[in-house]
Structure formats: C-alpha cells, structure tokens
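Memo to structure team: turn this sequence into structure tokens by end of day. - J.P.
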Amino acid sequence: MKKFAMMVCGCKVNDYEATYLRNKMLKEFEEVSFSEVADIYIVFTCCVTNVAESKTRKYFHRARRTNPAAYIVAIGCLSQIKGDSSDFSDVDLIIGSDQKDKIMDYIHENVHDNKVNKEISTAFEDLYFDEYLNKSRAFLKIQDGCNQFCSYCIIPYARGRERSGNHETLLAEAKKLAANAKEVVLSGIHTGRYNDGEYKLYDLLKAMIDQKIFKTIRLSSIEMNEVTDEIIELMATGDVLAHHLHIPIQAGSDEILALMHRPYTIKQYQDRIEYIRWKVKDVSISTDLIVGFPNESDELFEKSMETIQKIGFSFVHVFPYSRKSGTAADLMSGHIDPKTKKDRVRKAIAIQDELSYAFNSKFIGKTLLMLNEKTDGKYSYGYVKQYFYVRIKGSYPIGELLKVRIIKVDKDWVEGEYVTE
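Reply from structure team:
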C-alpha cells in the first residue's frame, strides 16, 4: 500500500479541509509522519504571516529531500497567491481555494501541470464528511471568504468573496460528526458573516442547541460587531454555547485601527466587551493583536499595551506586522524595522502572560466542565468551556465532558481535580 504524509499550516478552516482529504486518503493509502518516507506529501498552506509562509516553503523542501521521487501536493491560501512562483518549484500538484473536492482525482491521474484558478468561485465548496478522526472535538466549516479588506490582510485575495454553506446540509453534517465528537467548532474565514439567505449565524446556533446535537459548541474567531445580542443571550442562558469568544482587536489605538481599515473604535470595542461580560459573568474574551504596523510610534504602541491591559483579555495572540505585496498597507510609509517589531512582540507577550494568569486564577476553587482530549496514564488533559487548558490526575475516557475543580494556577499549568457526581 502506498504511503502519504500530511502537514496542516494555518487556521481551523485548513484543519477542516485537511480532515476531509485525510478521510478520503485513508481509504486507499497508509498515513505516516511527515518526517518519514512517503509516496505522497500533502501540505495545506498558509500565507497570513511571513512566518507561516516560510514554514510552508520549508515543508515543500523537506518533503523533496526526504523522498526525491515523491508526489508533492500544495493546497490553500499560499498556493492561491504564489502558486506560480519559484517557491513552488518542488511541488507537483498545486490547488488554491477551489477544486479541493477534485484532489483525489488529480492524485490518481498523477497530474503535474494543474494551474490555480485565479478567478475564485463564488459558490461555497461543500466538503461534506461524516466522521472526524479526533474523537473529542470536530471542526465544521460553515463559511468561506472575506469582503472586509483590512489594509494588512491578504486573505480576501487568497480565499475570495464571502460565501456560506446551506444550513440544512450543515445541520445534517453536524449530526454525523456528533456521533464521534462531543464538541464542535464552527469555523470560517469570517464566521460571523454566515448568511444562508434569511438564515444567519444565530439561527444555525439556535438550531444546533435546540436539536441537542453537541454537548458544546464553540465559535472560531468572530468580529466585535458580529457578536449580536441574540448570540450573547444564547450564551448567557445556557451552557452549550461555550463561554468563550475570540474577538480580534488587532490594535489598541484609534489611529492604527483607522490605518488598518478596521470598522470600529476602541470605545466601541470596549463597550461591547463590557456588555458581553455583564450578560455572561464567567466569559473568556481572547483576541489577536498586531504590533509594529506602519506608523505605530512608541507612544501608540504603549497606548495599545494600556488598552489590552484595561480590557483584561483571557489571552492574546500577538503577531508582528507582516508586509504583504498587494495589500493597502504595503504601500504605506512609516514601516517599522524588524528589531523594533521583535522587541514589541516580546513586551506584548509578557503582558499577555500576566493577563492569562490573572484570568485563570479567578477560577481557583470553582467547578468547570472540561472536554478530555488526551491522557498519558498519569494525567488527563483538556480545555474547559472558558477555553484554558487544564490537567487533572488520573486517566479518563477521551472525549468525555468531566467536571473539574480548579485547584492551582502557575506559569506552566492549570491544575484541576475530578469532581464526582
């Protein structure tokens, strides 16, 4: 039997699409580690940051070194943007943001001259499948593409315009996935803009909750102005919709937000967070933050740090600004030197560590629900519904929702103990 290896870079949408392909591949091929010799290597690419691009290219080269005769497949955003560049000289099959449902056919036909379609389809590509290999958590892609065009972001050019899945199809797929997974993460490039005619994100959430499909539903990243009062009410009045929202702020000053073409001010963002916390007392609010954006002075960077401390996020994903050809920010003056960006990342991460410690410590002595994702015999590990990682002593079934009492928080671990009924 021929062997394949797969590497997934980037977002939860890539994870979903990779799982679709993996399920198909496993019916005909044996999967091995990416570091092993394989007949076929598959890389789901990412271009959201320069670091992600660099890692993706390294995987191409590593695969070719490991087996010079291998068939190498590159799929996704970087393929769409740069598939015709020398970066892809080691790649045999290049798939962008379309035709993922045809990959198996191309592999069987040993296609070596596939060209990325520069005109990305406006139709939602339904990659329906009925089993997630992870027995605890599944991802479900409900939306693709983005119309927002933030000045720093290449993704609208890589993924195309917004499009959403049919809600009846998604509900049917969710029921299939729930046979193996207790938790689902609803994912998209712009998840909050899910729109199947009159059927919006709230309606999809409400249907999943009413039909009792999953024990826990999570939302992937969602914009501040898309967290509607109805969605907040769903979260506040039940425990199926996880008490966690990842709401990108991207910058902590109005000056930089305007340059980024972000559709809100800091006050509007803060007011919305305060309202969510008023309605959902134990909610976890995490965020994305870009530092070193063009024209971010030392004063504006310090203002950004003050903002994230004032809001008090549960955790912050910190990114140095990545210059992307074809975006509006690429043409701006005032680009920041790499050393300054690196220093700012370090300072922001130090603040993030303090914020996470403070948030997690609030739950000492409280009982939470943890989805058990793995066990090593001595401990079991998983995320609680407020989305921080916990370990408890003992070996418990994978995929089970466990009641755990938080007993200790330090820089390495949040410790809990199993609570019997």
